[in-house]
Design goal:
By secondary structure, the protein is an alpha+beta fold. It has one domain. It has six helices and nine strands; from the N terminus they run ααβαβββαββααβββ. The termini are far apart.
Length: 155
């Protein structure tokens, strides 16, 4: 296969991948409801920014098969386990966070107050949900088993 044909094939693959991604998002009812609930408070990142934030998120933190590796001092300090979502306001020091689910779902930039007000809609989209501060200094994990863990990222 010559180089020109390879480039065309790669371009078609990327177009197909983007189309499938968009269709998957459009058919995700819980995602649609979440976006509607956030209304104008949440901004869906464009594809380029989404890729950058997601790659940084995966590069900065250490992940295990079951979620973030919360071992104190490795990548995170001042780790707090909270029982009630209402405690977030007291613990979080940032105003704006990225809402991150799994790969393939959009990343939304949103204010903490709106996140707290619509947390049930946000967590319904996927079993594991993360709030990643826009300055990359704080992480909050809503684990699929119900745990809520917060911490400051160590650089």
């Amino acid at each position: 296969m010559n180089d020109e044909l390879k480039k065309k094939l790669e371009k078609l693959k990327n177009i197909n991948k983007a189309k499938n991604k968009n269709e998957e998002r459009e058919n995700n009812i819980l995602l649609k409801e979440c976006i509607e609930a956030l209304h104008n408070d949440g901004i869906i990142l464009d594809n380029e920014e989404e890729v950058l934030v997601y790659n940084d998120f995966k590069k900065i933190l250490i992940f295990t098969p079951w979620g973030i590796d919360w071992e104190e001092g490795k990548k995170i300090k001042n780790i707090k386990h909270i029982q009630f979502e209402s405690e977030l306001k007291e613990i979080c020091s940032k105003d704006i966070y990225y809402i991150i689910w799994g790969k393939g779902l959009p990343i939304i930039r949103c204010g903490l107050n709106s996140i707290i007000n619509h947390l049930d809609d946000i967590k319904a989209v996927e079993a594991d949900t993360w709030l990643f501060s826009t300055d990359y200094n704080e992480i909050i994990e809503f684990h699929h088993e119900g745990r809520i863990t917060c911490g400051q990222i160590v650089f």
